[in-house]
Amino acid sequence: MTAGTAVSDFLASVGLLPADGTAPEIALDIDTFVRAAVLFVLGSILYNLPVFLQRIKLTILGVAYFVFCNDKSWKKPQDPGAIFQPILSNPSNKANVEKKTIIFVRHGESTWNDTFNKGHHRSALVFAIGFIPGLIKAFTYETYLILSGRVDSWFYDSPISHLGLDQVDKLAKFLSADNSAKLTKEEAEFVSILRGDPGAPSSTILCSSLRRALSTVACSFRERLARNPSDKILVVPSLQEISRNPDTLSITPVHQTVTASFIDRTSKVCDFQAIYSKQTDMSLHIGNKPINTNGLKRMNEFCDYVMTNVEEENVIVGGHSIWFRSFFRTYLPYTVDHVSKKRKVVNAGCVAFTLLKATTGQGDKYMIDPRSIKVIYGGF
Fold first, then answer.
1. Whole-number mean pLDDT of the chain?
2. Fewer CB within 10 Å, N- or C-terminus of the chain?
3. Per-residue pLDDT reduced to its tens digit, 241-285
4. What Rg value do the Cα atoms of the chain yield, rounded?
5. 141-145 — which CB contacts under 8 Å span 24+ positions?
6. Alpha helices (runs of H) in the chain, residue ranges in sequence order
7. How far is 355 from 100, CA to CA, in rounded Å?
8. Rounded to whole angstroms, how far apart are CA atoms 283 and 273?
């Protein structure tokens, strides 16, 4: 039996060729089309079985998080203002308060945002009209990514969108431009810190494990990273976004290199995969946040980490809107009325502040100095 005969017999057995082996008519009936589609899907799944099994696991995990996770629920802690007021008013105690400058950098718009959020770039009417077509587009991409066997997704660990790339590219260009005439002395120093200029105060870059935050940091600081090959982006688990939605679940396996998304790979703004492979430290990446965690636990873990393990004076943090807003609400004195408690940092926005630490009888406590909050780029 020849190979051609074997193929013809197989196609005839599944109904794609007549039993006598003659060429089929051009018009296919619906049953034949369904059989062909099923064979194609099954073949794609079997060929990419490890990725398909990972997707099933991620889907189960996503359902479990959505049903059981209480990531946004926690008991309101003691007012940090009440804790720090007597400490800061006493000169002998004030000297023992530790300080660290934190610079929040929010990620650019993600594919999840593109599908489900109106955003600032379109009206409510445009969003409503385009919602169903946008959802169809999203599921089409998701199906293609699954069948092509890529460790990628539109929904899970949603990557930065094309609009998001444009937003962070503008931030990168802002950092590289000579804006000295437009900036105050304080703003210019923060920009110098973000750029990692020679002679600037020391800084390090931390980031969430979610790809849209990593893409933002890689793109925004591409010149700094290219100039300093030893500079690393350290992925810190406690920065994972506060939400039960599937876009907040990391798709990257434990300790493994981040895979550039389908949008990253087609972008010309920088070589994302090279930065992920050579300048992204995944040693702390232990997978997804536990189901029994919540945002307060992770924010406290972050504070503990930067105050205990980070030697640099300034900490650049690539992260997420709800996490950042929750941080301001938790660590600003409750009597302080600040926009950061009500509004999110805009996409690709940069905001700096001073984080204070005091050791008390109830353990280490943290507070944001409300006078120190400074918008560097974008704002709220």
1. 91
2. N
3. 999 999 999 999 999 999 999 999 999 999 999 999 999 999 999
4. 25
5. 141/111, 141/262, 145/262
6. 3-13, 30-47, 49-68, 80-88, 91-94, 111-116, 124-147, 162-176, 185-195, 211-220, 222-227, 262-266, 272-278, 295-309, 321-331
7. 5
8. 17
Indicate the burial class of 336 (C-beta count within 10 angstroms; 0-12, 13-18, 19 or more): middle
The one-letter amino acid code at 280 reads T
**Residue 81 burial (C-beta neighbours within 10 Å; 0-12, 13-18, 19+):** middle
**Per-residue tokens: 296:** 């307060």
Question: Which tokens belong to 47?
Answer: 């060929």
Kindly report whether the global pTM for this prediction surpasses the value 0.90: no
The pLDDT value given to residue 33: 77
Q: Which residues pair with 358 in a beta bridge?
A: 365
Position 16 pLDDT exceeds 60: no
Q: What is the dihedral of CA 9, 13, 16, 17, to 10 degrees?
A: 50
Tens digit of each residue's pLDDT (9 = 90 or more) over 181-236: 889 999 999 999 999 999 999 999 999 999 999 999 999 999 999 999 999 999 99
Strand partners, 234: 206, 281
Residue 277 neighbours by CB distance under 10 Å: 13
